[in-house]
């Protein structure tokens, strides 16, 4: 509800109409994003200065 901005559970349930295909697509996209994020290299700003 924090993501969608709904204040009450009843409003969230009213507008949160999702079919199984949408859930599967969202999960697949999340997994791809997390895999790509794990591959990124993060360097501290101090380490980058020479």
Task: Explain this structure.
The protein has 50 residues and is an all-alpha fold. Helix content is 62%, strand content 0%. The protein has three helices and no strands. It has helices spanning 9-15, 20-39, 45-48.
Helix content: 55-70%
Distance separating the two termini:
45 Å
Major beta sheet, specifics? none
Low-confidence stretches: none
Q: How many discrete domains?
A: 1
SS class:
mainly alpha
Sum up the overall morphology in one term.
elongated
**Mean of all residue-level pLDDT scores:** 82
Question: How would you sum up this structure in a few lines?
Answer:
By secondary structure, this protein is mainly alpha-helical. The protein is built from three helices and no strands. The chain is elongated and about 50 Å long.
Keywords:
mainly alpha; elongated
Layout of strands and helices, then pairs:
Elements lengths: L8 H7 L4 H20 L5 H4 L2
């Amino acid at each position: 509800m924090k993501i969608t901005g709904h204040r009450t559970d009843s409003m969230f349930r009213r507008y949160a109409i999702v079919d199984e295909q949408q859930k599967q697509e969202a999960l697949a996209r999340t997994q791809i994003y997390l895999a790509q994020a794990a591959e990124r290299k993060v360097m501290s700003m101090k380490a980058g200065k020479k």
